[in-house]
Amino acid sequence: MAFTLDNYRQAFTGFYLETFLRTLRFALTGCLLCLAVAYPAALFIARRAGRDRTALLLLVLVPYFTSFLIRVMSWQILLARNGPIQMVLNTLHFYDGPLDVLDTQTAVFIGLVYAYLPVAIVPLYIVLQRIPPALIEASRDLGASGWKTFWHVVLPLSRPGLATAALLTGVPMLGELVIPALLGGDKGVLMGVAISSQYLETQNYPMGSAMAVLVLIAVAIIVGLLARLTRGFAEVST
Predict the structure, then answer these.
(1) Could you say which of 40, 169, 172, 178 is the most buried, measured as most Cβ atoms within 10 Å of its Cβ?
(2) Structural domain range at position 210
(3) What is the pLDDT of residues 151-170, one digit of tens each?
(4) Full DSSP string of 111-173
């Protein structure tokens, strides 16, 4: 069989291109949501938790050591109609009526954030905990407000943690298979599901391989961008 690029051309058209772009959007959004939740949590544990720091870290990490499949499937029960979350929201009058969240993009994002939150908090905590308190005190002594101290001191010094957290969450999300399939239904068809379908159902291995290469290229670009984000950090920290 002669070498051909037909599968790559097909991967950039129609359903396959739409799935690839949807996957990039889901991975980017899921990663940003994880960072938005993980950064304040890590900052609180590193700076404010005091003697409760170890207990809070264990609270974050313990669910991560349970079965990934069980953790995802539990959200099917929690988000189902007449499930626990609906009952709580209805009781508190935050939401009235049935909760139709399963098989939607919202359910996929909830699952992504929940599943990858621990691996986002840990690297952020490590970096934030290592920032010398003297730097923060010096900033405040020089008249900087709490927000300016965070923006000009804490945030720049936490770039390696942000990059690591983004890498550990965004990259796996590009190939995520279980969460979209269980929580998203037909709204959760991402590249991981599509590639699996090419190998296991249609047995179109060349097409599946071409789609996998696209994901690898996206991963390489992400790694390059994150490496650029932390460029010069050694000079800054010294």
Answers:
(1) 169
(2) 6-237
(3) 888 888 898 899 999 999 98
(4) HHHHHHHHHHHHHHHHHHHHS-HHHHHHHHHTT--HHHHIIIIIHHHTHHHHHHHHHHHHHHH
Supply the pTM of this predicted model.
Answer: 0.84
Quick one: 235 exposed, middle or buried, by C-beta within 10 A (0-12, 13-18, 19+)? exposed
Q: Which CATH number goes with the domain that contains 87? A: 1.10.3720.10
1 found inside a domain: no
As for how many domains the chain has, the answer is 1
pLDDT along the chain (238 residues), means of 10: 75 86 90 94 86 87 85 89 87 84 87 91 92 86 84 88 91 88 77 85 86 89 82 51
